[in-house]
């Protein structure tokens, strides 16, 4: 597996911030960066893929659970029918977070020498969190939400429907806090603030 130096990571982080399809989030305890997460369009339509990292020394304290809950909430609020989380099957803490939040395991597969994550076992599992509206409709039809998602993909493939454009919506609840010191920050907030400033400048 290839190793990167600090400059490489800074360049990668800057590239993510500039990518219009990637939303970057950070979790802070006071002024300490606890974790970083991203939300990007999933490989298939109607959803986002989530990635996150929690700093060493902050595991087992509920930060990952809080962080992932907020990442999922933002993805769904931005128009996704599902949020996808791909986890190394040897990453037990992340699997526990997914299962605690009630995510559905969709599939497992192996890809040796994938180069993904510190464990790099080559064994993965995909977990999905679904929009509540999809879950309600699935319950009404007495099917699994993933079945309805597959139906959306099929109808898109035959040209019956188009995948909606994902948009960034302002967080209705303001900046999220677990405590007075812990906060969930996003580049979405900065984008909204810039739009407000530009609007005020135009309006005089």
3D architecture notes:
There is one protein chain. By secondary structure, the chain is α+β, with helices and mostly antiparallel strands. It has a single domain, classed as Aminopeptidase (3-Layer(aba) Sandwich), CATH 3.40.630. The chain has an 8-stranded mixed β-sheet. The chain is globular. About 2% of the residues have low confidence.
Give a summary of the structure in a few sentences.
With 204 residues, this protein is an alpha+beta fold.
- How many structural domains? 1
- Residue share in helix: 25-40%
The count of helical stretches stands at 6
Low-confidence stretches: 176-180
Radius of gyration, CA atoms, in whole angstroms: 18 Å
Question: Overall 3D geometry?
Answer: globular
Integer average pLDDT: 80
Named CATH architecture:
3-Layer(aba) Sandwich
Main sheet: strands, sense, barrel: 8 strands, mixed
Strand content: 25-35%
Helix/strand-derived category reads alpha+beta
CATH topology: Aminopeptidase
Helix and strand sequence: HEEEHEHEEHHEEH
Termini separation (Å)?
A: 55 Å
The total of beta strands comes to 8
Superfamily (CATH H level) name: Gcn5-related N-acetyltransferase (GNAT)
CATH class categorisation: Alpha Beta
Strand order of the largest sheet: 5-6-4-3-2-1-8-7
């Amino acid at each position: 597996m290839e190793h990167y130096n600090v400059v490489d990571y800074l360049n990668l982080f800057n590239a993510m911030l500039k990518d219009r399809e990637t939303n970057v989030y950070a979790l802070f305890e006071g002024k300490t960066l606890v974790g970083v997460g991203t939300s990007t369009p999933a490989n298939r339509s109607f959803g986002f893929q989530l990635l996150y990292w929690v700093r060493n020394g902050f595991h087992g304290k509920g930060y990952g659970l809080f962080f992932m809950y907020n990442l999922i909430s933002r993805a769904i609020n931005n128009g996704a029918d599902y949020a996808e989380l791909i986890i190394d099957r040897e990453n037990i803490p992340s699997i526990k977070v997914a299962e605690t939040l009630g995510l559905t395991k969709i599939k497992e597969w192996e890809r040796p020498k994938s180069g993904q994550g510190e464990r790099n076992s080559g064994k993965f599992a995909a977990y999905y969190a679904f929009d509540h509206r999809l879950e309600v409709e699935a319950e009404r039809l007495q099917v699994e939400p993933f079945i309805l998602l597959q139906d959306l993909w099929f109808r898109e493939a035959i040209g019956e429907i188009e995948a909606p454009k994902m948009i960034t919506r302002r967080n209705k609840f303001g900046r999220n806090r677990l405590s007075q010191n812990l906060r969930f920050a996003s580049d979405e907030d900065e984008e909204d603030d810039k739009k407000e400033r530009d609007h005020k400048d135009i309006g005089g």
